[in-house]
Design brief:
The chain is an alpha/beta fold. The protein contains 8 helices and 19 strands. A 7-stranded mixed β-sheet has the order 7-6-14-15-16-13-17. It has a 6-stranded mixed β-sheet with strand order 9-2-1-12-19-18, with helices on one face. Strands 3-4 form a two-stranded antiparallel sheet. Strand 10 and strand 11 form a beta hairpin. It is globular. Bound molecules: flavin-adenine dinucleotide. Flavin-adenine dinucleotide binds next to helix 1, helix 4, strand 13, strand 17 and helix 8.
């Protein structure tokens, strides 16, 4: 069957783009290499434990984003998060953290992706390896499994910049160059759980330290269970980059040790300790890219890194990509 638009990536940008196009009456299909929805707005679950190991929370500063979130608030899938939040210096001293309205998915950040996906056609566990232009100008996608998709009139690529660049090298040199000019920094995220609560006077902290950048207590977010007590710790971009190829257990032990030091509590044994490596976590220099569409190729790019480095930017970029696709080549 011939579909109009292929969207690569089922993170917030891709799902929002696909949803907007579907609402405009276009025929879309989303391709996602992992098993889940939501990309970096992710939740890791085990039988007893749950961690938001990617995006911690999001802001909703634009009225348009606020309007879009309203139905999710009504369904209880998004709620405000008001943690006791501090700034933690590398000598352990606490200071005030920036004031902001913060929101989270409920019961986990991944609720957002699942809600956005809804009934959209999403082919999961399908990694797109190449975009192939047919003689009539349409695109087919070649997958890592060696399959070739049906043809599409247009493609929206929403992967993190370096992965998007690899896909676009042979399809749109201009957009590939835009992607290559963006640098994305890694982050080691540690998921640690304790049988009983830690006695901290904060729930979350921006950490100004060579090793740690952020810590937060999962149970301070709405809809999470309090026992065992789960924390997410993020390594700083520099520290994470220097240990990118380290073994996860070693990374987890190092960041946990630093957490105890900075929190000024005696170390104790966790009931769970693991680490996840985000190779492309955030933009090094948040900015808005000048060009996000190649009208001749009928390809658009979207993703947080095209308009900053945050989830709200991912949402905005998805909307904008859908608008350009709908206006420039929708209905082709
Ligand atoms: C540790 C961490 C903490 C963060 N904290 C915050 C925060 O507190 N607040 C905030 O606003 N933002 C935060 N962010 C950033 C936020 O998660 C992102 O801005 C947002 O989720 C990006 O959405 P996206 O759709 O642009 O990209 P992604 O979520 O990365 O989606 C891209 C999708 O494309 C898929 N993909 C990639 N290549 C292919 C391929 N070849 N074929 C098929 N699929 C492919 C990926 O699997 C992924 O699902 C954080 C991110 C990380 C990693």
């Amino acid at each position: 069957m011939r579909r109009q638009v292929a969207v690569i990536g089922a993170g917030v940008a891709g799902l929002v783009a696909a949803r907007s196009l579907a609402d405009e009456g276009l025929d879309v299909e989303v391709f996602e290499k992992s098993r889940g929805f939501g990309g970096r707005a992710a939740t890791r679950r085990t039988k007893r434990l749950q961690f938001d190991h990617g995006a911690q929370y999001f802001t909703a500063r634009s009225p348009r984003f606020q309007d879009a979130l309203a139905p999710l608030f009504e369904r209880g899938l998004v709620e405000a998060w008001s943690p006791r939040i501090v700034r933690l210096a590398s000598d352990g001293t606490r200071g005030p953290a920036p004031d902001s309205d913060r929101f989270v998915g409920v019961p986990g950040m991944s609720s957002l992706g699942r809600a956005l996906a809804g009934d959209l056609p999403v082919a999961r566990s399908v990694q797109v390896e190449q975009l192939h232009r047919e003689r009539n100008g349409e695109w087919t996608l070649l997958t890592a499994e060696g399959d070739r998709t049906d043809p599409f009139e247009a493609v929206i690529v929403t992967c993190p910049a370096p992965q998007a660049a690899d896909l676009l090298d042979s399809a749109s040199r201009g957009l590939a160059a835009v992607c290559r000019s963006a640098v994305m920094l890694p982050c080691w995220a540690v998921m640690v759980a304790f049988e009983s609560p830690l006695e901290f006077d904060f729930d979350a902290a921006f950490v100004t330290d060579g090793m740690l950048a952020w810590v937060s207590r999962e149970a301070s977010k709405p809809g999470r269970s309090a026992r065992p007590e789960c924390w997410t710790l993020q390594g700083s971009p520099e520290w994470s980059a220097a240990r990118l190829e380290d073994e996860p257990g070693r990374v987890a032990r190092a960041l946990l040790g630093r957490f105890f030091e900075l929190g000024r509590v005696p170390p104790r044994d966790p009931v769970h300790l693991d680490a996840h490596r985000w190779r492309y976590a955030r933009s090094a220099e948040p900015r808005t890219v000048a060009t996000a569409v190649d009208a001749d190729a009928r390809i658009a790019i979207a993703g947080d890194w095209t308009v900053g480095d945050r989830l709200e930017g991912a949402w905005q970029s998805g909307i904008e990509a859908a608008e350009s696709v709908a206006s420039q080549f929708g209905g082709g």
